[in-house]
Amino acid sequence: MGHIYDLIIIGSGPAGLSAAIYAQRAKLDTLVVEKNYASGGQVLNTYEVDNYPGLKGINGFDMGTKFREHADELGAVFAEAEVRSLVDEGAVKKVITDQETYEAKAVIIATGARHRKLGVPGEEELSGMGVSYCATCDGAFFRGKTVAVAGGGDVAVEDAIFLARICKKVYVIHRRDELRAANILQQNLFELDNVEMVWDTVVDEIAGEQQVEKLKIHNKKTGEAGELAVDGIFIAVGILPNSDEFEHPVEMDESKYLIAGEEGLTNIPGVFAAGDVRTKMLRQIVTAVSDGANAVTSVQKYLLTLK
Ligand code: NAP
């Protein structure tokens, strides 16, 4: 029989790395399985993190890198592999990957979340050719140009504010007449001269030959259809949990978040969930790192029951 770890952590975003730090300090024999070295999660693509206590304005990439360095310094062990399935065999959990099968007494799933797509014609075809899901990554390519942001949440508004500094004009296309984003962000947005709100409107198609040229849109209240000439569109319509990328026996809610409370306990003893992938009120870096710490505490309690 191969090596059996105390703990396997799947994912290396803030939740996974926080769990790795706590696990190292608890002297648990731990392996972190990540897709690749740069799988540090959504934080890596965040331009500015403004609400993490003590680190106001830190760049997301720098923050993710610091989390990683901290785990590395404590001797965390990482494996680059894509998980195919998690099999519960009671006292042993098998993590089957595209590389090899790892075994552990406990597993923390910290696989995070990904961008939701609009699902309209042209989105896939023009991805990387004017269709982007990351304003902070791709915004600089649109200097002096006209772009649209689709969505009405915190990310859409933050993206629009960021893009307004770079672009000539930014349309914010939202399907309702009220933004979901925090009030402070809304105030900052509405102060900008080069931002135009396009309310009650959805994108039906993203069109262009080699590059995005225009959006076909329609107003949901009036039914009126129209076109918007843009050089790019930033899609910020929410996130989806990364709970469906491999097979597992963990119960999920109707939106596919892994059902787990603050302690990270799932329906499977010995399998825990931490970070954006679990059911929770607030998906933030600060709550993700908290989840990682809590999950390791739950793992320690669980391991005691095995002895
Ligand atoms: P979100 O809060 O879920 O907002 C998604 C937005 O996209 C909503 O306005 C929604 O419209 C719209 N939308 C969803 N599906 C759509 C579709 N098919 N077509 C058109 N519009 C669609 O997502 P998010 O902005 O990505 O934020 C994710 C999480 O991160 C949130 O919990 C957010 O608070 C958090 N976050 C916080 C901060 C911060 O505190 N500084 C920064 C970034 C993110 P409706 O409003 O009509 O539903």
UniProtKB/TrEMBL annotation:
GO terms for biological process: removal of superoxide radicals. The keyword Oxidoreductase applies. One of its GO terms (molecular function) is thioredoxin-disulfide reductase (NADPH) activity. It catalyses: [thioredoxin]-dithiol + NADP(+) = [thioredoxin]-disulfide + NADPH + H(+). It comes from the Bacteria. Its cofactor is FAD. Pfam families: Pyr_redox_2 (PF07992). Residues 5-292 form the FAD/NAD(P)-binding domain. GO terms for cellular component: cytoplasm. Its EC number is 1.8.1.9. InterPro entries: FAD/NAD-bd_sf, FAD/NAD-binding_dom, Ferredoxin-NADP_redctase_2, Thioredox_Rdtase. PANTHER family: THIOREDOXIN REDUCTASE 1-RELATED-RELATED. Belongs to the class-II pyridine nucleotide-disulfide oxidoreductase family. This is Thioredoxin reductase. The lineage of its organism: Bacteria, Bacillati, Bacillota, Clostridia, Lachnospirales.
